[in-house]
C-alpha cells in the first residue's frame, strides 16, 4: 500500500514538472496603470457575458481635463512617443501610411487598430483622446516587446482589406512568432470580418476585438471561426449606430453554434457608440485571448 502511494506521488510530481515549461512559456502582458483602466464596476456577469457600469460624469468628466478631448495627465505616459514612427510601407496593394509603436522586428505581439468612418491612422495613436486608452495600448505593446500599428486604408471594402492584409503580411514576416490581434472600431469591423475570412490570415490571428462595431453572419463559416480565434465584443447599451441587441444576438449565435467558443461580450450600460474604445480594458482582454489561443 505504501509503495503504491509512493509510485502515485512520483507520477503526480513528474506530471507537474513536465507541465512547468509550458506554463512558464505562456505569454502575458505585464501590468500598466491597471488601477486606472480596470472596469469601474461589474453590474452583472453570466459566463462570458458581462454588464459594466458606465457613468459619463465619472468616466468622461472625471477622467478628462477637457471632456472628450484631453485625458488627465495620470492616464497618459508620453515617453512612449520615442518608440513611435509615422511610416509608409510600399506593397503590391499600394502605399500604406501607418504609425508604428514598438518593436518592428522580432515582436512578441502585434496589435493593430482599424478606425471607423471618418477616422485616420492618427486616431489610434492620439495619446489624450478616449480617456488615454490608446496611450495605454501603445505602452502595453512597447513595454512588453510588442508592436502597435495604426494604419490608414482606402475603404472598408476590397481595396482596404488588401492593404491591411499586405500590412499584416509584412510585419508578420518580420516577427514570425508574434501573436496578432486586430481591434476594429465601428465600421472598421468590416475589415475585421474580411480578415477572419482570409485563408492565410484568419487562422494566424490570436484575437479579434469589435469595439462598437457590427455583426457578420459569414464569420460562422470563416477560417478564423474554424480554429476558434478568440472574439471580444465591447458595446454601449445606447449605441444608436449599431444597436446593442443585434450585436448581442450575434454573440449568442456564436455560442449556439459552438458552445465552447472563446468569445466574450462586455455591455457598457448607458454607454454610446464610442464608449467601448474609451472603456475596454486592453490588458485584461488581450491576456484572456493569450490564455485561450
Describe what you observe in this structure:
This protein has 293 residues and is α/β, with parallel strands linked by helices. The protein has a single domain, classed as Alpha/Beta hydrolase fold, catalytic domain (Rossmann fold, 3-Layer(aba) Sandwich), CATH 3.40.50.1820. It is built from ten helices and twelve strands. The protein has helices at 2-25, 34-37, 56-61, 133-143, 158-174, 189-196, 223-226, 244-257, 275-279, 282-292; strands spanning 42-46, 49-53, 64-66, 70-71, 84-91, 94-102, 109-114, 147-151, 179-185, 205-211, 231-236, 263-269. The chain has a ten-stranded mixed β-sheet, sandwiched between helices. A two-stranded antiparallel ribbon has the order 3-4. Strand 1 (42-46) and strand 2 form a beta hairpin. The relative contact order is 0.14. Mean pLDDT is 92; it is low at 1-25.
Give the topology:
Layout: H1 2-25, H2 34-37, E1 42-46, E2 49-53, H3 56-61, E3 64-66, E4 70-71, E5 84-91, E6 94-102, E7 109-114, H4 133-143, E8 147-151, H5 158-174, E9 179-185, H6 189-196, E10 205-211, H7 223-226, E11 231-236, H8 244-257, E12 263-269, H9 275-279, H10 282-292
Parallel strand pairs: 2-12, 7-8, 7-9, 9-10, 10-11, 11-12
Antiparallel strand pairs: 1-2, 3-4, 5-6, 6-8
